[in-house]
Amino acid sequence: MAQRPVDPAEAFFELGRIKLGETDLSGVLTRVSELAQRTIPGAEEVSVTLMRQEGAHTAAFSGEMALRLDELQYEYDQGPCLDAARESIVVSVPNMSVEERWPRWAPRAVLAGVGSSLSIGLPIRESVLGALNIYGDTPAAFDDDALTLAQTFAGYASIALANAHLYDSTVTLAAQMQSAMQSRAVIEQAKGIIMGERRCTADEAFAILAKVSQDSNRKLRDVAATLVERAARPASPRRDRGVSGHLP
Predict the structure, then answer these.
(1) What is the DSSP letter of 4?
(2) Torsions phi, psi of 103, nearest 5?
């Protein structure tokens, strides 16, 4: 059963009210592809390409045909979605059967049932480029009104994706900083234990931890955490052997 079309104003409102704390970048990408398919007249299938330093990949898609055609572009290193993403431009293919710009890819698109397509660049962040790819099953599936609507939709989508990417990056950075602070704290605790038992300096205590880490091929934080954990256990006459009894 086909989903009902979405009024453009409703789609733009939907993109603008995405709550980033309730979803992630993947969720936003999926919503963008779903809304585009239901909002833009002539859209049979839709996908979103993201390009990072390591290469391009399809981050969301409404159907297997869109995914397959995107992946062929990455394999051949040619096609409208790559051009649109790299140059942040609109690439229109009114009739795929006579398209000559991508001689390896276009015939495969025709065989897959694509008659026309639109790819619109999405400048998400400086380090991330993207494209909204819209596939039609007939030639000339997208008239001027559809093209204008697709460009407007892409503008709203770019803002939503940029915000989601920034939020995702900020959350990741915060988690990394929290982990780093916790690691620093446990290392300082372990140094304090060694300094108390060895009557040594902070630098000497760190050197002891570093040597154990290297000799045991374990992370410094893990060695420190083990020492702190063992030091917190009730001491017994047989176990109370100073640092050598604590360090693994």
Answers:
(1) P
(2) -65, -25
> How far is the CA of 129 from the CAs of 57, 74, 99, 151, in angstroms?
11, 14, 25, 16
What residue ranges in the chain does DSSP mark as E strands? Answer: 45-52, 55-61, 90-93, 116-125, 128-136
Q: Determine the 3-state secondary structure of 139 from DSSP.
A: coil
Cα–Cα separations (whole angstroms), residue 20 to 26, 38, 61, 165: 11, 22, 20, 10
**DSSP β-ladder status, 116-125 and 128-136:** antiparallel
Residue 154 Cα distances to 75, 89, 133, 192, 201, angstroms: 25, 11, 10, 56, 60
Can you tell me the distance from the alpha carbon of 245 to that of 14, in angstroms, rounded to the nearest whole number?
Answer: 61
How many residues are there in the chain?
A: 248
How many Å apart are CA 214 and CA 123, to the nearest integer?
Answer: 45
Rounded distance between C-alpha atoms, residue 81 and residue 199, angstroms: 65
Rg of the chain over Cα atoms, rounded to whole angstroms, equals 28
- For 179, which DSSP code? H
Q: Token pair of 151, please?
A: 């460009």
Q: What is the pLDDT of residues 198-211, one digit of tens each?
A: 888 888 888 888 88
Closest C-alpha among 138, 106, 128 to residue 48:
128
CA distances (Å), 215 to each of 130, 218, 223, 247, 248, in order? Answer: 46, 8, 11, 12, 10
pTM, rounded to two decimals? 0.61
pLDDT of residue 175: 53
141 phi and psi angles, rounded to 5 deg = -70, -20
